[in-house]
């Protein structure tokens, strides 16, 4: 019986010849097109970035994630695109979730508490609209805090986590903290001015380098705030105030009663008093008024003492000074220039000075005496 | 019927024979009889196998060859690799992709971005901020400045804030930026470019008059400050070591300005800003009066003012007596000379990013009675940053004529036209007279020439007697003067009188000089009034003296120039004068 003709042609030389020819043709086909003047790839690189988008270049606002660019050996990265930001469309409304408004949570971090991170992860605001920013001082304590923070971040920000945050930025401060931050030293009256000036600089560095053009709200949350309602952001934003501050308390173990109890912690949220104004007038330009010290009785009305644990959590009061432990600010207040003065501004410094500066710019601060967040108990 | 000896199956009992048969065999043989050969059960007919199965080997080899070829091609030509398809495919197949491509964590050490005097060597990034409003006419000039900057472009990030623009600023800006970024040399492309569009809803008019009116100043400065703060807070990154603020309407600046300012290694540094003026306004003028040193008077003034008041420099309403950077300029001075200042102007500010990071901004409220860039300087000082100006390092702001200037220019234009007309008329008349004169004069000239020749002949003939010759010379000289006098006296017909250039020149020169001399005086007083408007009134005591001296000098210079010009214009005439003088001389000689 005869072998089929088709099989007889199947000898390898045929394939090699055919392949060679093909490559030859294709070579000329593509080779020619390479000679043609091609249009520049970045003809009109106009981009419009919204708060949720990932930027296409590493040179982008830190409040946005970005796409990694993989470059071949010897390949030159294309120039960064021209990005347009329509800041008219950056809104701050009482319905931030519905309007997809992005929130930037800023934390000056001196010591890292696991409870802080756990609480942060429990926040019910959509995490893809939350960017986090940390500033950590130099030195050994700072290095330790950075390590602990990064450990938690790698777990939370794993690509497999559907609930990861939009972006996280860690800044290391350029200067050492001025004094050792033990609890007793930290609150000594003499050290206050210097400490709070350094703190103001840290806050400002954090704010003005990470704010970016897409942020709607800024939530200042201290690293020792370990318990907040999960709906903290929605609750505070629903008041639609420029600056709003909840009451900061502390849970502690009362040895006398042998039970857990709460006590006020943050005394920087207050309504001004004529006494304090009079004190301020008598002071030199570089002196500051401080709250919570017996040496300096200001007779201001402190929000900490207005709390009523069973009262309406939506009760609002107008404030003249605010504390920074938890503080929700509309980004436009900061953009107008309200910052944390590291110098005595109307005899006020840091967050209290911030409230004053915002006031000079036409923004008012509001307090929620019956809405609580809790501070770590050392 | 037993046909078989060993059979017996037929009659029932199987296995009766010597070789018993299995019952099944018996059954099957007993019931069916199949005649099909076994081989037909083993083999299918040829045509039952389809073509694909038959040539499977061939197809596989072909496919393999094609795949190998494609891989080879992709190896040689990376451009045909379907990079766009691969992630899409993997997304579909594995359900991962985007989130693996996205980086969410960034880490920065602010100690690395402190800013040093040699930033270009340490690859320090600069943020260049430019607030824009209705700036389309200046943009092409601004972009040419950008291209010319010698600081490595990839280290410069650009940020623009476009707000409340009624012209095509935004489209023009986008086009220019795309063009800038698509430069064929990748090293010429800039870093991050952000265009921020934000309308503040300001009603303030941006034209020169309303922009510099005193009443509008405070609110205008506050809204400018707001725009600057929005721009900065949106564009500043943890990677920036420096921030450079630059107005788009700077006309001339050194290409190396970033390096030049950086070399001083100051926290905030500004150059001197002047602007060129047309000649009739004095050629140049200090422009940016917001860079100054604080004075006792100003501090005392600030104490008397309301909390929300803003002291604006350059208006008579607030006499601050401050030393201004702008007035200290010496064109031949050392450009590296530094001067401590308290308020800064915003035309061109180089500041370390740490200044802005620590909170210094452009107060949109009255900070120590100042707003915007002056308040910025004050706040930087308050936070113990160094604020320095370079009095002899000058950049030039664009000259935009004010309404006064434009009116003045129109007047000048009209005057110029009138003068031209007048001159033309006079020229015509002179031409006419000339031609008339020449028609009589041509014949006379010939006669005169002949007479001259004759006289010369006579003179040479008489030359043997030296004494006589000397006498004759003396007479010629004497009569020369006399003839001139006689000439002006006797020629009392208008023609000759006008044509006499000796009489004409002084009167003309005087007249012509009068006009331009008036002009500079006007213009200087115009400039002075301008100065008054722009200067602090505190400068008035020093300034007018200077101005007066300058004025005198200028007037003198203008007069001299005018005379010179007039003389040049009439340069043709004197030759004729000489000619005619000679003629007279010859006549006298002939008479002798």
TrEMBL record, chain A:
Annotated compartments = Golgi apparatus membrane
A Gene Ontology molecular-function term?
alpha-1,6-mannosyltransferase activity
Give the record's GO biological process terms: cell wall mannoprotein biosynthetic process; protein N-linked glycosylation
**Record membrane topology:** Single-pass type II membrane protein
Main localization of the protein described in the UniProt heading: Golgi
Q: For this UniProt entry, which segments traverse the membrane?
A: 12-30
Q: Name one GO cellular component term.
A: mannan polymerase complex
- Give UniProt keywords alphabetically: Golgi apparatus, Membrane, Signal-anchor, Transmembrane, Transmembrane helix
InterPro entries registered for this protein in UniProt: Mannan_Polymerase_Subunit, Nucleotide-diphossugar_trans
Q: Which residues form a coiled coil?
A: none
User: What Pfam families would the database entry show?
Assistant: Anp1 (PF03452)
The yes or no answer to whether the keyword Membrane is present is yes
Report which superkingdom the organism of origin falls in.
Eukaryota
Family, according to the entry, reads as follows:
Belongs to the ANP1/MMN9/VAN1 family.
Listed name of the protein = Uncharacterized protein
Source organism: Oleoguttula mirabilis
Q: What is the lineage of its organism?
A: Eukaryota, Fungi, Dikarya, Ascomycota, Pezizomycotina
Automatic annotation (TrEMBL), chain B:
Q: Give the region (Disordered) as residue ranges.
A: 411-442, 480-592
Gene3D superfamilies, per this entry? Spore Coat Polysaccharide Biosynthesis Protein SpsA, Chain A
Q: Which InterPro entries match?
A: Mannan_Polymerase_Subunit, Nucleotide-diphossugar_trans
Q: Which GO terms describe its cellular component?
A: mannan polymerase complex
Single GO biological process annotation from the record:
protein N-linked glycosylation
- Residue stretches of biased makeup (Basic and acidic residues): 411-432, 483-498, 518-536, 562-580
Question: Which molecular function term from Gene Ontology is one that the record holds?
Answer: alpha-1,6-mannosyltransferase activity
Listed A to Z, the keywords are: Golgi apparatus, Membrane, Signal-anchor, Transmembrane, Transmembrane helix
Membrane topology category: Single-pass type II membrane protein
Where in or outside the cell it occurs: the entry states: Golgi apparatus membrane
Q: Which residues cross the membrane?
A: 58-77
Can you tell me which family this protein belongs to? Belongs to the ANP1/MMN9/VAN1 family.
Could you tell me what this protein is called?
Answer: Mannan polymerase II complex ANP1 subunit
Native organism is: Oleoguttula mirabilis
Q: What is the lineage of its organism?
A: Eukaryota, Fungi, Dikarya, Ascomycota, Pezizomycotina
